[in-house]
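Hi support team,

I've been running sequence recovery on a batch of backbones for a student project. Most finish fine, but this one hangs at about 90% for roughly twenty minutes before it completes. I'm not sure whether the input is malformed or the queue is just slow. I've pasted the structure tokens below so you can try to reproduce it. Let me know if you need the job ID as well.

Thanks,
M.K.
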């Protein structure tokens, strides 16, 4: 990584404690802002911009979900999205109970896990579904799971 960036290892480690820390910082810096926050929407997040970004960089996202990279990348992405969802849930007044628990932490993990599962499926199947249709699927899955009627 340092060689490709044309920097020394010491320079890399003066900024990041690990490759995982670098990935986490970039997910927080670039990807989370693409998740449109809408605490009033039953599914909390409009992921359309994020899905469009993934479709525009398929090789990068495929590389995150293959082999050893997947073992490291998935928990980082899930944790970042979970933290983001927990913040949105905290903003929501009178958060409806989920089917499993009224715990905000469980609901945030549900949102993050659903997004990651859908994303990995989409990347693995060649991204044939348009981003806006993928958002409709996400909204149906997550919105139904977070709503009292769902």
């Amino acid at each position: 990584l340092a060689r490709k960036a044309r920097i020394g290892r010491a320079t890399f480690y003066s900024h990041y404690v690990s490759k995982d820390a670098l990935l986490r910082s970039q997910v927080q810096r670039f990807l989370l802002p693409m998740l449109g926050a809408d605490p009033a929407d039953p599914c909390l997040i409009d992921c359309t911009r994020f899905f469009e970004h993934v479709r525009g960089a398929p090789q990068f996202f495929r590389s995150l979900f293959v082999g050893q990279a997947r073992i490291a990348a998935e928990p980082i992405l899930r944790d970042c999205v979970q933290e983001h969802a927990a913040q949105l849930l905290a903003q929501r007044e009178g958060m409806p109970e989920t089917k499993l628990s009224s715990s905000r932490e469980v609901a945030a993990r549900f949102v993050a896990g659903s997004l990651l599962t859908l994303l990995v499926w989409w990347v693995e199947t060649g991204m044939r579904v348009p981003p806006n249709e993928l958002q409709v699927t996400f909204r149906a899955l997550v919105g139904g799971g977070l709503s009292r009627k769902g």
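--
Follow-up from support: It reproduced on our side and the slowdown came from queue contention, not your input. DSSP finds eight helices and two strands in the chain. No action needed from you.
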